[in-house]
Amino acid sequence: MIKLDISTFVSLHILVSVIAVLIFWIFFEIRAKINGICPDDKYIWRCNICLNIYVDSLSDDISTCPNCGSYITREQNKK
Description:
Shape: elongated
Strand order of the largest sheet: 1-2
Structural class: alpha+beta
Distance between the termini: 65 Å
């Protein structure tokens, strides 16, 4: 039997937990990029009035801000 004092056991437990979280994080980031879940820059809109950032998956030239209801064109969005 391996003898461990409580501080070593807690340290090892925290270390293993952090490593597991990092591995899951990397796995899901890679999976999201492969599946195309990350939105392109053309779908990310920024409202000039309320500064709200949102995703609009329609390929229209005009989008409506869900927060304040103002209209944003593609030219305004690129600034």
